Amino acid sequence: MAASEKSSLSRRTMEIVTALITAGAGLAVCYGSWKSGIGWSETGPEAGYFPFYIGVLIVFGSLVTLLRTMFFYRHEGEIFLDMEKAKPVLGFFLPIIGFIVVSLLLGLYVGTALYIFGFMTWQGGYRWWISLLTGLVVIVLFYLVFEIGFQVPLLKGPLENAIGLY
Q: What is the structure's pLDDT at 114?
């Protein structure tokens, strides 16, 4: 096995993982629908009736994909992702994970401003002050549109609470 094959992800492995993840999502849809009711009432189908069967279709399709991948299409030697191709993907994926963590800890406004600042500065090559100004303008627009216009509160953190944006 070549060194590049050791540091790569095969297509077969990725198809199996994807089939298992989508089957899990389908089972989650089925479970949530079952809790809402999947039968018929006097007025027609209950809230979970149609979503339940969509979940069943997702699980069925996932199982078909899993069985086809495991027993019929081996995809021997086909590379899905190697380290060379993974670097740009990680360049977008890891900041999104950081955005989620920061938003949960410090609030959506702080997370959004830092995300925009970081991406514009490091990935876009913009000057730091343009990136900072853009991040601030975006969060002010978010506040005006969502909090004031639509009256939909966004996730707040300790900083927003400290300055009175409840």
A: 95
